[in-house]
Amino acid sequence: MITLTKEDGPADLDGVTHLSIGASWDPTAGSSGGVLGKMRRKTGTDLDLIAIAMQGGDPVRLAGLDSLDPLANGSLIHSGDNQTGHGDGDDETVTVEFARVPSNITSIVFVAAAYKKGSAFQKARNISFKVYDATGGSTQQVADIWPSMLTQDNCCAVAKAIRVGGTWKLEVINVTGKVKQGDEHALMRFAVSK
């Protein structure tokens, strides 16, 4: 297993027919102690893993939030919204079956966002992203991506799967920015700029 970084450049996905990206985080009380801290840990924090399918420079579909199969053919599937960060393992996952991705989709941008009002990266800790080779029905972790979350921003473009001829590559982006919470168009504009 490796840790992928921006400096590594795009990684070949030759032989990978199914790729999964999993996001996990733990709720934190931040600097709050006592009853307020206990309440914050209990309610958790809602971060979102979102995959945006791109046609050239245009976002055309979004997996995440309330859209679990945006291409309607099972090629880009989101596991559903975890609103707390509680539990072991990945809190949200996106799986891509490359052979079924329509030929007009040239890339898929994976974004982590404190998208809903009141959510924030600062209300979570141990934020990480795991890359899995899900070829053949089994899921084997092959890499970690640990983007910098030392930010006042609420959005991070984590990685991008890029179609290169008949194959795909995975590139770490790790760029943060601000988007208006609850605004899907702002989220898509952020992905386009990456």
* Helix-strand category: mainly beta
| Straight-line N-to-C gap | 26 Å
Helical residues, percent: under 10%
Count the E strands. 12
Profile the largest sheet: 6 strands, mixed
The ordered string of helix (H) and strand (E) elements is: EEEHEEEEEEEEEH
- Radius of gyration computed on alpha carbons: 16 Å
Count of helical segments?
2
In one word, what is the shape? globular
Low-pLDDT runs: none
Instruction: Please state roughly what percent of the residues sit in beta strands, choosing from under 5%, 5-15%, 15-25%, 25-35%, 35-45% or over 45%.
Output: 35-45%
Strand order of the largest sheet: 1-10-9-3-7-6
The overall average pLDDT, rounded, is: 83
Q: Any overview of this molecule?
A:
The chain is mainly beta and 194 residues long. Helices cover 10% and strands 42% of the residues. It contains two helices and twelve strands, in the order E-E-E-H-E-E-E-E-E-E-E-E-E-H. The protein has helices at residues 34-43, 184-192, and strands at residues 2-3, 11-12, 18-27, 48-55, 58-63, 76-78, 92-97, 107-113, 124-133, 140-145, 155-164, 167-177. Strands 1-10-9-3-7-6 form a six-stranded mixed sheet. A six-stranded antiparallel sheet has the order 2-12-11-8-4-5, covered by helices on one side. The two termini are 26 Å apart. 39% of the residues are buried. The model has no long low-confidence stretch (mean pLDDT 83).
Summary of the model, kept short:
By secondary structure, the protein is mainly β.
